[in-house]
Amino acid sequence: MATTTTTKTKTPTTASESGWKQARTWIAIIVLGFSIAGVVYLGLTMINAATDKEDAARYVLASILPLLGTWVGTVLAFYFSKDNFESATRSTKELLGIDQKLAAIAVTDVMLSIANILKVTEDDDTKIVLNKWLETMDKEKKGQRLPVLDSKNKAKYVIHRSIITDYLASEAIGGTLKTDLEKKTLKDLIDAKPELKSIIVSFGAVKKDATLDKVKAIMEQSNDTQDVFITENGKTDGVVLGWITNVIVDSHATV
After folding, report:
1. Which pLDDT score is estimated for 92?
2. Is the pTM above the cut of 0.70?
3. Tell me, what DSSP letter sits at residue 185?
4. Considering the chain, what is the average pLDDT of its residues?
5. First and final C-alpha spacing in the chain
6. Lowest mean pLDDT among 31-35, 160-164, 169-173, 199-203
């Protein structure tokens, strides 16, 4: 039976590179050291040879100190800029790997199930009393956002607690009585601040077979989009199965 001899190719070692780095370091130290010593020696010689030593010292120091500072700064910049460049390169490589990492995570593995989240299910915005839902959010302690779905479990809005509190605070400052504040509804908020409508409807949607990188891509399309629903048809008008926030994406995007 014939035997096959396999010749292994040795991978080049880093000994030569390490040796060059050490040699380069010593060259820098020697050149810088001799240069500084030489300049200092010449400066002292000039001061000793001068008639007015105080005046000579002033001029010598004024000439030497900037020169030494430039040399030292050049050497430090050479070595530390290399380290900074390598660090930046590593960070860039890590960032480039984030999308690949998210692409391996199914949305169904990390989503908040629609059955377990605190949500409003209501077709009529006039029946969504803001003060009531603030109290519910405080009691349930399930985050600072409140998804609003219709009776068919299709997403309508995602309202941040701060939007509600800011609106009620502005109404109170404007002189609205406490009893009236407690009756304010979501429709009142939208009518009073129509510019907020584009924010609370700024959510995306994906299918349940999507991966987390698709969610990240949707959120990056707009600064206002911080929420993505998992729906049956993968569109914002589909029946909601789950919910993913930007906080969830960020927690899985760490390298």
Report:
1. 59
2. no
3. B
4. 82
5. 51
6. 31-35
